[in-house]
Predict the structure.
Amino acid sequence: MTQRDIDQLLAAVLEQARALKIPVSPRVDPHVRLNRRARNRFGCCILRDGVYTIELSAHLAEAGAPEAVSQVLAHEALHTCYGCSNHGRRWRGYADRMNAAWGYHIRRTDDFERLGLADDRPVRYVVVCQRCGRKIPRMKRSLLVDHPERYRCKCGGALRVEDAAQTALF
């Protein structure tokens, strides 16, 4: 996707929100900033000097999935509404309205699979549930990787760490 395509998607998303009487800020920079370093987040809304700038992962833009890009832009656009700098009740209400009216699936967080994208991030560790077998990929060393005994899987099972090179992920 080109910068122009992405900027047009942002304009369309802002119009969709305004059509629903969602009070997105009139002070949104019309040019989306592409972040070439972002690997784990898809977008970001930055308020500086009274102007909102929406940032998008260049990796997402290069994936060529306009539906996913629009959804992330819509998520970030809602952060420009008064009282919506977080994912609180007001932000969730606006997200629900956008989802119902325009077919988005806006939520607090998203992942590659839900956006219909391939996850090409390098995996160094795999945390495995000993009860259900769920595999949780990790790119970096963390407290979970160093001390899996302190955590539990969603099913309640104990976790252990395996080397990603020796584990088939899926």
User: Anything to note?
Assistant: The chain has two domains: 3-102, 125-166. The helical segments are 3-19, 58-62, 66-78, 89-102, 143-146. The mean pLDDT is 92. The CA atoms of residues 49 and 155 lie 46 Å apart.
